[in-house]
Design goal:
This protein has 336 residues and is mainly beta. It is built from four helices and 22 strands. The longest helix is centred in the middle third of the chain and has 8 residues, at 137-144.
């Protein structure tokens, strides 16, 4: 779905009981700042709003917290406590945002940046230590990834090569350049098993390009009559494709038979995806970096024969995909 910003209806009548309920018009819950991609996020971008039991509330990040005291003369407006590190810079009041029927959909945090109310925080979530000491993609690459063989029928016919290179600290995939994890993952919903969570920050160089992801690959190019001609990489019948545009249609997301239109990605602007593979469902969250809008798509892929994560781009001469960050995590299931 699209989490589209809508008009704030500040004339809605609220009481403390409403705000502290568990319904959609409660301010209590989880909030996330989607103005930043996975690699740019830190502990301030994941927030929980809690009741303090005294008629006020707590804005709690992963590393600190401060009070929110209701303003008597303004609905859904709050005084920010002086423990907030941004208080001295003028961030002394804040507001929540509602949709047209009065449901709480977000909050304006420090710097007046928008935080979307969510059921659960997204998959890429750092603690303070990992934010400050997180190694770069280039430092991790040789230990985590393989470059998929550049050979294909397309390279023979066209005299080109699928390229994987570096531009500074950014990975560059050119003309079906492809990478695959060394590890083959086995996510499952069983207790003690894990879900696979992948976050990627990337940008297009041209509006004819697209990027394909899969968490179900064998990590090799396909050698059937059709796919080998174009340098296709095995996707385990569960491809995820972000398409910037081109001669075959407008910008969209494609996932195993599903197609969802998206806004035209800005060429040269960092984009982000979060992928969750539970072993049955594969879920995608796409963030285009333009505001607080994101797109969620999911599909049922069934049992996975292979489990290597792969990504590659299109084959045209102008297609170069820049990748700044790839985060891969296992989230183990518990019976809680």
């Amino acid at each position: 779905h699209n989490s589209n910003p809508v008009q704030n209806t500040e004339d809605t009548n609220y009481c403390v009981g409403d705000l502290e309920s568990n319904g959609a018009n409660s301010i209590i819950g989880e909030y996330e700042n989607f103005l930043y991609g996975p690699s740019e996020k830190n502990h301030y971008h994941y927030v929980s709003i809690l009741a303090d039991g005294k008629g006020a509330y707590i804005w709690k990040t992963q590393c600190n917290e401060w009070s929110l005291t209701p303003l008597k003369d303004e609905k859904l407006a709050f005084i920010v406590g002086d423990k907030c590190p941004y208080f001295k810079n003028g961030y002394k009041t804040m507001k929540f945002r509602t949709d047209y029927v009065g449901n709480i959909i977000g909050a304006y945090g420090p710097g007046y940046e928008y935080f979307t109310k969510v059921e659960n925080h997204s998959s890429i979530k750092y603690d303070l230590k990992s934010v400050n000491n997180k190694p770069s993609l280039q430092e991790l690459f040789d230990d985590v990834f393989d470059i998929v063989s550049s050979y294909s029928e397309y390279t023979k016919k066209k005299g080109i090569s699928h390229q994987v290179s570096w531009s500074g600290s950014n990975l560059v995939l050119s003309r079906r350049g492809a990478i695959a994890t060394k590890e083959s993952f086995t996510p499952s919903t069983k207790i003690g098993a894990y879900s696979l969570r992948v976050g990627v920050t990337f940008k297009f160089n041209h509006n004819t390009d697209f990027v394909t992801f899969s968490t179900r690959s064998n990590g090799q190019r396909v050698f059937n009559q059709t796919d080998s001609e174009w340098g296709i990489v095995d996707d385990g019948n569960c491809p995820i494709r972000i398409i910037a545009g081109g001669e075959y249609g407008g910008p969209r997301i494609e996932m195993k038979g599903k197609s969802v239109d998206i806004r035209q990605p800005e060429i040269g602007k960092w984009l982000a995806v979060g992928i969750i593979d539970t072993g049955d469902l594969v879920k995608l969250r796409f963030f285009d970096g333009q505001d607080d809008i994101y797109v969620d798509v999911e599909t049922r892929c069934g049992n996975n024969e292979h489990g290597r994560f792969i990504m590659y781009n299109r084959e045209l001469e102008q297609d170069h995909l820049f990748v700044r960050d790839i985060d891969i995590e296992k989230e183990f299931n518990t019976d809680n």
